[in-house]
Amino acid sequence: MSASRASAEGRRGGHDNGVVTTSDAQERARASRRETSGPRREELLAAAAACFDDLGYAATTVELIAARAQTSRPTFYAYLRSKDEAFLAVTEQVCAQLEATQQLDGIESLPPAAVLRSTTRAFAGAIFANGSLVAQIDSRAGVDPDVDALWSTLRRRLERRFTNYLSGLDPATIDPCVAPPQLVSMLSDSIVRGAARLGRAPDEVREQFINDHIRLTERAVGVVADSRPEP
């Protein structure tokens, strides 16, 4: 839900889904805190992420987030407008973490197999580190336009970067089974949804998923056999 829509619903009902009405001065103060961040807001977002991860979106409330952050409900509203805004801020953080995993130094000098293995492992690891959050973000994107805007933008950016990387490789080093744009889209769906389902799985299950996805990616991309590093 967008901030303006959330505020409008709050005004009509007085209180809806953790949304409360505020004065213009309070809105300006909250916007200033959002722009400058600060330890208290970061504590609230960490508490929100933990609540969403443990309880799910529906069961999480402003009261529970405030309690986990060891603060009060009024303090929550001094920094965040609603539970929806908290979820959106958590989504921003998760998206930043996922994007950072694909920024590999010296990528031009590395063999394709090494790049695929490193980025696959890092990306899946970031999904695992966020527990159930990526699965929830993927689900919420279907009903919340603001979450969808963040999530879709990240997915498109990462897929475009991967496609450009594959398209720029020496044709002698890879033999993709389908055109890079379609291949990247399929591999992206596979790792995002596959890893998200294993957010709470045992370490050995997660490791098996990573190894399986690396093999799948190498075969789909058509990495030349003699350029693959040892498992």
UniProtKB/TrEMBL annotation:
The HTH tetR-type domain, residue ranges: 38-98
Keyword DNA-binding: yes
Biased composition (Basic and acidic residues): 25-40
GO molecular function, one term: DNA-binding transcription factor activity
DNA-binding region, residue range(s): 61-80
Region (Disordered): 1-40
SUPFAM superfamilies associated with the record: Homeodomain-like
PANTHER family hit by this protein: HTH-TYPE TRANSCRIPTIONAL REGULATOR ETHR (PTHR30055:SF184), HTH-TYPE TRANSCRIPTIONAL REGULATOR RUTR (PTHR30055)
Protein name, UniProt field: TetR/AcrR family transcriptional regulator
